[in-house]
Amino acid sequence: MHITDSQKWLVLAGLLLLGWLIVSLSPILSPFLTAILLAYMGDPLVDRLEQWKVSRTNGVIITFLLFTLVFVAAALLLVPALVRQIDDLIASLPAAFLWLRDVAAPYLESRFGLVIIQFDWLEWGKKLDWGATGNVVKSILGNLTQSGMALLGLLTNLVIAPVVTFYLLRDWDLLVERIAALVPRFYIGTVSDLAQQCHETLGAFFRGQLMVMFALSLIYSAGLMLMGLELSLLVGILAGLASIVPYLGTIVGIGAGLIAAYIQFGDITHLLLVILVFSVGQLLEGTVLTPKLVGDRIGLHPVAVMFAVLAGGQLFGFVGILLALPAAAVIMVLLRRVYRNYRASRLYGQAEDAPEDAGQIGSEGTPSADDVEPITEPVSDQTQRREGSE
């Protein structure tokens, strides 16, 4: 089927309109995108409950209650502990400042001959009111509650996201069917194959990688807590979240853990224990967590993940961060399709130069470009014949 120039311009105009809408509506998109993500993650559980003879509505209620329980437990257990540890971190900044001034800077200058920028350390120490920084988090929360519009926006998001999640979970399969019904029948095979590949990639990431991040946060926090580190929960969760990019979580965790352990203990033993904790976590991630929970279906290079997050945040703010990884996964699927089409085309070279399965793009039984017979009758005649056979 030949695509005309007008159709190409129509597709381009549609993409530009979509980008403009995302930029214009970004202030109100966050709760809806969050709801779509939660519904996408919860739909397999609802489908499983339906297989167990539970009605769709009851399955949605059960899944919704499980999500609510998880978020409430996290808010009650983690948030107060994190607030306390952030206060402890801020309270330890004077010691870190003194160590940087009296130990690190002189050592680097004498050992490596580096010229450290000459700060007025005494003036910096006076400007930083260390005693008043212990309640920074409380101050931020106080300012938030004093701002009527900010508080209203926060409460609106907290109300909208659960409501939209509930309705999306209930009607998820119906929405997918209606979207599929809008696809032109000529492209339904290709679109279905691409959608399945995108689903596998996104599902492996959102369900698998998020479970890996949670498991690593738990492992790192528990290990650092056992060695007595005061900032164990903060460092562990930070390293777990950073593990969205392979190896970045380990690098961030070891760096933050070593600094926190040196400031608190000041000996080599605890520094080695920090390295041991993250080495064990990295070993478990590579041998157990990632192979079991994620597998090899993501196919997103760490550099692509990092670039997608940064580019999405730069272009569209927080909404761009939410859209970055799904968009990167879809783009990677499309690029693989383009690559395989190119390898199977005559432009690449002779047929024997291409891989044997390069032409079988998508689902099994899809013919390659060389196997497709040329169209010798008008498209209108083909359509009438197809409708008659149906």
Rg from alpha-carbon coordinates: 27 Å
Q: Major sheet: size, sense and barrel closure?
A: none
The count of helical stretches stands at: 12
Strand content: under 5%
Outline:
This protein is mostly helical.
Based on the model shown, name its key terms.
single chain; about 400 residues; mainly alpha; 12 helices
How would you characterize this protein structure?
The chain has helices spanning 5-51, 56-91, 93-112, 121-127, 136-146, 148-181, 188-226, 232-242, 248-264, 268-294, 302-343, 379-389. It is mainly alpha-helical and 390 residues long. It has a domain at 28-182. α2 (56-91) packs antiparallel against α6 and α9 packs antiparallel against α10. It is globular. 18% of the residues are buried.
Task: Tell me the layout of helices and strands.
Blueprint lengths: L4 H47 L4 H36 L1 H20 L8 H7 L8 H11 L1 H34 L6 H39 L5 H11 L5 H17 L3 H27 L7 H42 L35 H11 L1
Helix pairs in contact: 1-2, 1-6, 1-11, 2-6, 7-8, 7-10, 7-11, 8-9, 9-10
